[in-house]
Design goal:
- 64% of the residues lie in helices and 5% in strands.
- The protein is built from 15 helices and 5 strands.
- A 3-stranded antiparallel sheet has the order 3-5-4.
- Strand 4 and strand 5 form a beta hairpin.
- The radius of gyration is 22 Å and the shape is globular.
- The chain starts with 22 loop residues before the first helix and ends with a helix.
């Protein structure tokens, strides 16, 4: 068994020496693959999926950050999205969640240019942490229980060794001839990345971004629309326990089954939410046409679903109307029940409350 206080330099390359084609693993993988395929298929039928997906990605950013005890409220988060210029009044946790969203989008762009490589992961971490730091060079990194201070894990040490292990991981990710089921492979590579722990900070969040980018890379999803972190945060203790037990007891099956269950359940959840959002949008279009009549704008409804919190300036910046016109639109939609108005300081926000209910539920 690995000594938790010693660097785990003997971390073996993937794949592990176990039966990855066992009936129980493949049965779980088939279920998760089917649900992912349903999610992908529905997303591909949407006329403009990015409009709906922006809110999904922001929620994933919030939940993934919360796993690392970086917690913000929905209200703080969406107000910050609308008022990035008001940086002095945005708390540090909210800023980190917004950086996660930017890191995910940056990773998506890098994925198209150079694939899921070590350099891509480094760039994601740098965006996530707003740093120029790269692979961890310092020694003495230990992961400890935040309450008891007991050492839980000591990752490998030495930049050369970390790069060697990352190179091996990269080769494993891109090996298309190993015959390993893609979703089982995702579980393996997520453990491996977290065990390598290549950065001084941001490993957990970078690893979770890597998960969804891998699904996009394989064209199992068209965009990173999986609420994977919502499952992990609900089963956080089990997540960390199973990661640790792979290291200490080589209990790979339990870990793989956990990840497959996470993919299956969150694919179903994501599909449910996207369908609900699309249905709400269609209903909102009908209501908005009745309220605004000749002034109705499809671009305005799109904006309300891309950004659940808006203000007059938001409409101006998106060329939907000058200040007075934008104000009139929002007031009419609030009076008609589509939006709720909320005054904070001198600023009036208009909230797509029905959309927020779906996102937060």
């Amino acid at each position: 068994m690995n000594d938790r206080s010693n660097p785990y330099n003997q971390l073996a390359d993937l794949p592990p020496d176990i039966d990855l084609d066992s009936p129980i693993l493949l049965k779980s993988s088939i279920k998760a693959s089917r649900l992912l395929a349903e999610l992908k298929g529905y997303c591909q039928t949407l006329p403009n999926p990015r409009i709906l997906i922006n809110t999904i990605i922001l929620q994933e950013s919030k939940d993934s950050s919360a796993i690392e005890n970086i917690v913000t409220t929905q209200d703080e988060l969406y107000r910050a999205v609308m008022s990035p210029e008001d940086g002095a009044h945005i708390n540090s946790s909210t800023k980190e969640v917004l950086m996660y969203k930017e890191a995910l989008y940056a990773g998506l762009n890098l994925l198209k240019k150079r694939g899921l490589t070590t350099n891509t992961l480094v760039s994601i971490m740098q965006k996530l942490k707003n740093t120029t730091a790269g692979i961890r060079q310092s020694i003495g990194t230990r992961l400890a229980n935040p309450i008891t201070k007991e050492i839980i894990y000591t990752p490998p040490e030495g930049e050369a060794l970390l790069r060697e292990k990352l190179t091996a991981l990269e080769k494993f990710i891109h090996n298309e001839t190993d015959g390993i089921d893609p979703l089982i492979k995702l579980a393996l590579m997520h453990y491996q990345f977290e065990a390598i722990h290549p950065f001084a900070d941001g490993n957990g969040r970078t690893g979770r971004i890597m998960n969804v980018l891998y699904l996009v890379h394989l064209d199992l999803l068209p965009l990173p629309v999986l609420y994977l972190s919502s499952f992990i945060i609900q089963h956080k203790n089990e997540y960390y326990r199973l990661l640790r037990e792979v290291t200490e007891k080589e209990t790979w099956n339990e870990w793989i089954l956990y990840m497959l269950k996470a993919i299956a359940e969150t694919a179903a959840l994501s599909l449910k939410k996207i369908k609900e959002i699309q249905q709400l949008k269609e209903e909102t279009i009908i209501k908005a046409k009745e309220i605004l009549k000749a002034s109705y704008s499809r671009d305005l409804v799109d904006l309300l679903f891309c950004h659940p919190y808006v203000k007059i300036k938001t409409l101006e910046q998106n060329n939907i109307g000058h200040r007075q016109t934008a104000s009139t639109y929002l007031q009419k939609l609030a009076k008609g029940g589509i939006l709720n108005s909320l005054k904070i300081g001198k600023e009036m926000y208009y909230i797509n409350h029905a959309l927020m209910h779906i996102i937060s539920d």
